[in-house]
Amino acid sequence: MSAVAAVAAVKKFVTDLLLWTCFAGGLAASAGAGAVIDDDVRKNVVTAVGTVLALLAGSRIARKPGIRAFLGRPGTLWFLFSSTAERRRPCTSRWTA
Q1: Could you give the residue ranges of the DSSP H alpha helices within 63-91?
Q2: What is the rounded distance in angstroms from the CA atom of residue 29 to the CA atom of residue 50?
Q3: Closest Cα to residue 55, out of 18, 23, 14, 16?
Q4: Cα separation of 68 and 22, whole Å?
Q5: Predicted local confidence at residue 78, as pLDDT
Q6: Are the C-beta atoms of residues 23 and 58 closer than 8 Å to each other?
Q7: Which end of the chain is least crowded, N or C, by CB within 10 Å?
Q8: Are 74 and 53 in contact (CB under 8 A)?
Q9: Assign residue 64 a region: left if phi > 0, alpha if psi is -120 to 50, beta otherwise?
Q10: Any idea of the CA torsion for 39, 42, 48, 53, to the nearest 10 degrees?
Q11: What is the pTM for the complete model shown?
Q12: Helix, strand, or coil (residue 39)
């Protein structure tokens, strides 16, 4: 392995690590802000910033060929969209208000 290839591999590893860390941090901030922060304004700001950070990092991650291939598989698509369809169905239970 040449020096240029080694530097490129380290750069790719650091970039991937940073993207996944931003994604996980954004999810944690958006989901956990209510339990940690008491002030309503700061809680809303942290939730919004965490959501935007997770969306931006997630969109960059989803562009990678391996993740794109996984998301394009029929089983993955079925899972994502069938669970969405189940939630949209009106409830016919007599116990709902």
Answers
A1: 65-71, 74-88
A2: 5
A3: 23
A4: 19
A5: 83
A6: yes
A7: C
A8: no
A9: beta
A10: -130
A11: 0.71
A12: coil
